[in-house]
Input
Amino acid sequence: MDPHQFLGLELNPWAAAVAELVLWIGYRQWHFRTHGKASPAEPVLRDFRNIENHDAVLDWDSRVDCRDATGAPVTRWDGIGTIEHPVTGERVPNPLARTQVWDYLNPKPAKWPEATFIVGNPPFIGASRMRDALGDSYTEALWQAYPKMPHSADLVMFWWEKAALAARAYKPGKGKGTRRFGLITTNSLRQTFNRAVLEPHLADPKTPLSLIFASPDHPWVDAGEGAAVRIAMTVADAGRREGRLLTVASKDKVGEEAEGRRVDFNMDRGMIFATLRTGADMAGATALQANDGISSPGVKLHDAGFIVTPAEARDLGLGTVPGLDRHIRDNRNGRDLTATSRGVMLIDLFGLTEAKVRNRFPAVYQYLFDRVKPERDAKASSSPDSAQYARFWWLHGKPRPQLRATLQGVPRYIATVETTKHRTFQFLGVEALPDNMLIAIGPDDSAQLAILSSRLHVVWALAAGGRLGYGNDPRYNKSRCFDPFPFPETTEAQKAHLRALGEDLDAHRKARQAEHLKLTLTGMYNCFEKLRAGERIEGKDCEVYDQGRIGILKDLYDQINAATAAA
Output
């Protein structure tokens, strides 16, 4: 063995040369550790040129300047340059900070050298950031070259797809194909949008791929920013076999100067599914028709300029301009539900044309014209979606018409925070418009709230949903957690009992928080989990226990769990 057997792909020509040199340094160190002072073969360094200098996932026949109908070069906002808005004083995109847009002719997948093993730590760029980070043309060329890849998949998944195809082509005994591959990716690998890449390879009936090792949430320190994050590791090869799943049991807390930390794992053996779990195949659960159209994420603004304080809302005419009360509404996000409410409102002009807004609510029109339109215009050329947002700049990016239809005529709806430490469900009045980080569920049936709050549903949601961020918080993806969940067919007596428990649960928490304004839902459930685990309630938790009546809360949950199990 020597470095000629180590192949690589590197976009930066300088880094490609350094990588090959580092291989030789490592090889020489191994030589002296193994053979002592024996001289290595000469020449000491050989130029094998086995680290190729080109894009690792995309190839093209040529790259040319993108030009408009008049022949002028097409540019886009570079995503960096900003100027101060003359009215608001806020930083907005600088219309002169532009970068060239390229056209990629005949884009196709990059060809990888044939290798027995593939390892890598590909770049972590989320699907929502690809256009800004890589450019509109490159992103669309990538999708054109990989037509089967979902547009919601992160950039790292293109490496996973290519490695998986190489491994599934392995022919034992013939020396062709890749025997095994291992990649470091973001821990969003098991989220629905990335799982769509894994599932076809793992479930193929003829040439399946198996995960033989996985660690879904390994602690990691970003070398560039020094930020503590979580990553996933996966190792796969062809065939159907069990693997080892390592989940973090504990990790040492050490100072920033330390080079590493001890991490202890729990290890399970079994078939590892696309959710990076063993046990039941939750990834195989499909949506139920009975749950169709009932739940939805809240509105997605695509600009914070729609958010106003109550004082700003009054200045814009709330309370004095007829009809404006239907278009400036209370707003709720995850922090409002789990911590201290922001107390903000939201401009919501859904259903109105630009002309109607200007004529009926001129103050609101000018407010958004100054705060929303500049950024929408600056990003208009970056993607078809951004062009649509710029065209309808006075409206939310995703106003969720289906959600509005679901909530039509009901006084309240059930809401849960999409990513949160504790999975809780509560009623919100329909006058409050949820944002994109909340999942809204209708209709306003308190029996449904009780079932969703039960241990049965929470365990399901933890297994079906992914986890996100360094805090490793559970994520409630409606398509995986709610849509496939089988609600029980209850008798009238069971339904009445569940409704009473659901009302009691919702009323109990709201009454405690109304009496103690600093009492948060997160604080209540931190204490509740300690009580349920049999831990001693002491220190500050004693105050939370008394204020939140956590003993009563636990009793309500015990009754809900029993009633749901019976149903």
Remarks:
- Residues 1-54 form one domain.
- The chain has a mean pLDDT of 90.
